[in-house]
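pls ignore typos typing on phone
zinc ion + seq
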Amino acid sequence: MTPLTGSCLCSNIQYRIDLPDSEPTPKIALCHCTSCKRATGSSFSSNILIPAPTLSYTRGSPKTYNCPSDRGPPVRRAFCADCGSPLTTQMSDNPGTLIVKTGTLNEGERERVSELGVEIYAGRRDAWLGAVGKVDSVEGMI
Ligand SMILES: [Zn+2]
Ligand SMILES: [Zn+2]
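k done
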């Protein structure tokens, strides 16, 4: 598969994701947990889940912050220390999977990652926001 590339707002951090051809284009998972709300400054986060070794930084390296997750085990959040863009999260009990914020993908590639797959922590969806699309809503983590 053609690599997916992305960057933070100031471009000091850039990354590429090399998924094997056997891997389907990842679907988007929206997360409504309180931790994601605060970390993104928004009502939910928009993510893709990829095998951790497939992401490499081609410029700079993010700062990380460990915080408790809504379900307990800490989450490692990686972000740009210069502009603050959230880039990835990683669950401490699932280090093999990297969760990438889809808003950081470069334009053309964000169009390739266009299918919504699931909403998680749907029980914490902000009241003004209805279900997004016709996908499964899960109360907790998947
Ligand atoms: Zn930046
Ligand atoms: Zn979350």
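The chain has one domain: 4-125. The first helix runs from residue 34 to 40. more later
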